[in-house]
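Translate sequence into structure tokens.
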Amino acid sequence: MNRKRLNSIKLLSLLALAITLFAGCTKTDLEEELLYGTWYCAEYEGGFYYTFNPDYTGNYKDKEGAGKTFTWTLSDQYLDITAKGSGINVAAIETYVIESLSASKLVWYDQNDPSRTKYTYTK
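Result follows.
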């Protein structure tokens, strides 16, 4: 094999390795534990609370305390909430896209909202 061809093979091998390594580094991997706890959003209908438990259950309620229980899953930046409770005959699944998540701040929007209105929650 000539030297030029060998160098091309080495370069292509290095490029393939670099692509593989960078493909595993995504910004969308969220630390699920940061979601645990109670979050408050003042900008939504006069105040709204979400509580996420480590056993994938939770509840949401308004400032008067009316609300529902739910189960949840987190996959990449997609948070699926399946509502339960009286008046719900079938599971109502809502999917939110998490823009950012830290120990004290959560920003998301409803995947089905064409305006992608973002809501900010704090602990």
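Note: Helices lie at 3-23.
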